[in-house]
Specification:
By secondary structure, the chain is of the alpha/beta class. It has helices spanning 28-39, 55-66, 97-117, 158-175, 195-212, 223-231, 246-260, 263-278, and strands at 21-26, 43-46, 76-79, 82-85, 120-125, 129-133, 138-140, 151-155, 180-185, 218-220.
């Protein structure tokens, strides 16, 4: 008897090896991917703008990574004794403006150079809900605890996102013609939006990515399905019952290796993980 439906490891017309440079943008689940690749010893840059949840903010970050001059004064503000960026996660906020801008510019330049030379770009969409700063008419990556009445919450459509991403994909591939893009949907549940609303949001993201992977050199990895359909048990979630547990992330890491690595690369990756574990850099369960 079988008591779960195992997701077959997807196959791709390429393999990631140790000559590969990997860039990741997106939600907190994107950071999990980044940690897995880093622990395996790959040259990786993960979320240079911090965690970004909605596709529009991710698109803006990618545009800024191609052309760093797009980031300007429209995206910065001073609130609660700190300078903040509406294009970045709150970890960039700082009371000193010069330090704040210096940190952002350093990461912008790093993203600019890395995107130009990397081999793989992983993009993780988290939610189709976006917040528009009413006064400036911009979609924000983070509300920075500014009063809610300053924003309009909107559920964007598949058509909205595809309209933004189709020309963006062309720009990205013009900037880096060797690049391959892997899209995925975060399995993290955004229950603050509501149970039904979370399902609507994830459905929009799935259908959006289904359109985007019709483009050349764009692919899909089933993170969402692995958690929702394969593991499908609350013991694979954290205490908040929304974020995947450590063992669930480890399981996804195993599927990543099976899907993207050759046997030789996988062996090297496991050795790197064991070496890092011995140094105390990573948790006990990851990929072991």
């Amino acid at each position: 008897m079988k008591f779960r439906t195992e997701i077959p490891c997807p196959t791709y017309p390429f393999k990631i090896d140790y000559n590969s440079k990997i860039l990741l943008f997106g939600s907190c689940f994107s950071d999990h991917f980044g940690s897995i690749f880093q622990q395996q010893g790959f040259e990786t840059l993960s979320n240079p703008f911090g965690t970004l949840f909605n596709p529009i903010s991710i698109a803006n970050a990618l545009k800024m990574s191609i052309n760093t001059e797009i980031f300007n004064e429209d995206y910065i503000d001073f609130f609660n004794e700190k300078w903040i960026s509406y294009a970045h996660h709150g970890k960039f906020s700082h009371p000193d403006k010069a330090t704040f801008l210096q940190n952002i510019q350093a990461e912008l330049e790093k993203a600019h150079q890395f995107l130009k030379n990397c081999d793989y770009l992983f993009i993780t969409f988290g939610t189709a809900f976006c917040y528009e700063l009413i006064e400036r008419k911009i979609i924000v990556a983070n509300c920075h605890k500014i009063p809610a009445q300053k924003f309009e919450k909107r559920l964007f459509s598949i058509e909205d996102f595809v309209k933004i991403y189709k020309p963006l994909l062309a720009d990205i591939f013009e900037y880096n013609s060797k690049l391959k893009m892997i899209f995925t949907v975060s399995p993290v549940r955004h229950l603050g939006d509501g149970f039904h609303e979370n399902q609507l949001s994830k459905s929009i993201l799935h259908l959006t990515e289904n359109e985007l992977i019709k483009s050349k050199n764009c692919f899909y990895f089933p993170s969402y399905e692995i958690i929702q359909d394969d593991l499908r048990d609350y013991r694979f979630y954290g205490n908040d019952l929304c974020h995947p547990s450590e063992s669930a992330v480890s399981y996804i890491g195993e599927i990543l290796m099976e899907s993207f690595f050759t046997k030789e690369t996988k062996e090297k990756a496991l050795l790197a993980v064991k070496a890092n574990k011995a140094k105390g850099h990573i948790s006990h369960n990851i990929l072991l």
